[in-house]
Amino acid sequence: MKILNLVVPSILFSNLAIGRKLPSLKEKLPSNATLLADDSKVHILPIDVDKKKAQNSTLSQPEICKKESHQISSAQELNGLQSQCTSVAGSIEIMSDYLDSTVDFGMLKNVEGGVKISNSPHIVDIQGKDLQNIHGTFTLSNLTSFVSLNLPSFIYTRAVEWEILPIFSRVLLNNKIIKVRNIVISDTALADIDCFKEINETDIFSINNNRFLETIESNINIINQDLTIHANAKDLEVDMSQLVSVKNLTIRDTAKVFFPKLEYVNRSFEIIENTFTELDVSNLKTIEGTLGLINNTELTKIDMNKLTTIKGGVMISNNTKLEHIDFLPNLRQIDGAIYFEGKFKDTDFPELRLVKGSAYIKSTSEDLDCAKWTKVVNQKSIIRGGKINCISAKREKAVELNNEGEVLKEMETSHELETNKTSTGEKKELLKEKSSGTILKPLSFGGLVFCLSLFLFH
Questions:
Q1: DSSP code at position 378
Q2: How sure is the predictor about 277, in pLDDT bands with cuts at 50, 70 and 90?
Q3: What is the DSSP string of 85-134?
Q4: For residue 116, which of 167, 164, 70, 85 has the smallest C-alpha distance?
Q5: Beta-sheet strands, E only, within 209-252
Q6: 213: pLDDT strictly greater than 50
Q7: C-alpha distances in angstroms, 138 versus 133, 179, 189?
Q8: How far apart are CA 220 and CA 178, in angstroms?
Q9: Is the pLDDT of residue 431 over 80?
Q10: Cβ proximity of 250 and 409 under 8 Å
């Protein structure tokens, strides 16, 4: 059968058989639509943003549009560029000597490189009614008077880096943005970042020091590298209800978090200095690095019931209202060290079979049972990192072990509350030989992180 390819303004007819009835050209279609026919019906499909087509579109434009770099120092220069080019092949930089209050991209639709606007005390608003794509990084930095960003057609950029914009409070972008490789928003006056709500995958998602930001809602599924949220509004609530996988997760200074579908953390999971009372990550299965729950002063309930393996260390420290460390019922193996410190009354790890690092457990509670950690089964401990040190308000016990978990030396001390006298047999040295390791002592925060990153293989 003979096939025609006809191009008509505003409509593309592709692979249409001769003799087939076509829609009337009077029927208005969006300029960004493709009309396709098959054996039974006509389909109208949106045309995806095609970088190659955008590049080709510059070939018919003036030479200025083909330059690799445009350094703009005035609104007049920018107006000259946008009046001649709908697409530029290179990057655009608004220089620090730009004295006008408005940056207007006018008729410019596409930038093949990046856009950088920085170090100008005069710029108040940035606009561009037609700007759709920035294929490089969109950088806004150190703009102390900047208030408003208005790009209603904007749908794509490789990366967003918005930093040191202390009164930046209004942003309008197309709500159909679904993919940005990196998102960094720091030190702004934004109250929300809903313009990025529909993004489903990114490499870096870093939101920090935005003092008026009270909600982060995102439908993101995958974060290939880092999720970092800290130092925003005191009552910040984070809702990432679709997040399944992340490499590194660090949450600080938040009032609520919601990760109901999170299954995989490919390196570290750190929850530090937050004010929420509950942490529910009940679908989390693996942590490939360190688990850290530190200085969460209101935290009382944690659910990690599906977590079976932690490839790094475990640090649970100074969560002052957490009475029981019993939220890892199916955890079987820890490949790093253990560091527990706080007011907790009990620990319970019914399925734990192997800890490759050392163990330091300290509580101010009299109810803590250190025997759970210092006992041996079949003459071997589950701790294989050389040392166990367990301290409660009543008793302290230290155990040295060999590579196989066999006890080499024990020392036990009772802490009598009524007198300074020590009880009979409070110190027992079963063997005098030293082991190769050292008992974990209380450390600074940096030291704790370092210790838990160690994998103590023999």
A1: T
A2: very high
A3: -SEESSEEEE-TT---SEEE-TT--EESS-EEEES-SS--EEE-SS--EE
A4: 70
A5: 215-217, 222-230, 237-239, 245-252
A6: yes
A7: 10, 14, 18
A8: 9
A9: no
A10: no
For 409, the token pair is 């030396």
Q: What is the mean pLDDT of the chain?
A: 84
Structure tokens at 457: 């293989």
- pLDDT of the residue at 379: 86
d(C-alpha 359, C-alpha 378), whole Å: 20
- pLDDT tens readout for residues 311-339: 999 999 999 999 999 999 999 999 999 99
Q: Does residue 433 sit in helix, strand or coil?
A: coil
Q: What is the DSSP string of 277-296?
A: SEEE-TT--EESS-EEEE--
The amino acid sitting at 260 is P
**Which residue, 345, 350, 323, is CA-closest to 392?**
345
Strands (E), 144-230: 148-151, 156-165, 170-173, 182-188, 201-208, 215-217, 222-230
Return d(Cα 378, Cα 150) in angstroms, integer: 69
CA distance 317 to 306: 22
Amino acid (one-letter) located at 59: L
Place of tokens 């609530």: 237
8 A C-beta contact, residue 70 and residue 95 = no
Q: How many CB atoms lie within 10 A of CB 451?
A: 22
State how far the alpha carbon of 309 is from the alpha carbons of 123, 289, 335, 355, in Å.
51, 10, 8, 11
Percent of the chain at pLDDT above 90? 73
Sequence-distant contacts of 93-101: CB under 8 A, at least 24 apart:
93/69, 93/117, 94/118, 94/120, 94/123, 95/71, 95/120, 96/120, 97/73, 98/72, 98/73, 98/74, 98/122, 98/123, 99/74, 100/74, 100/75, 101/125, 101/145
Beta-strand relationship, 269-272 and 245-252: parallel
Residue-wise pLDDT for 112-158, tens only, equals: 999 999 999 999 999 999 999 999 999 999 999 999 999 999 999 99
Distance between CA atoms of 415 and 10, rounded to whole angstroms? Answer: 85
Residues 6+ apart with CB under 8 A from 129: 106, 150, 151, 152, 153
Give the dihedral sign, CA 58/60/62/66.
Answer: positive
Contacts of 26 (CB under 8 A, 6+ apart): none
Is 202 within 8 Å of 220 (Cβ atoms)?
Answer: yes
Helix (H) or strand (E) holding 46: strand 42-46
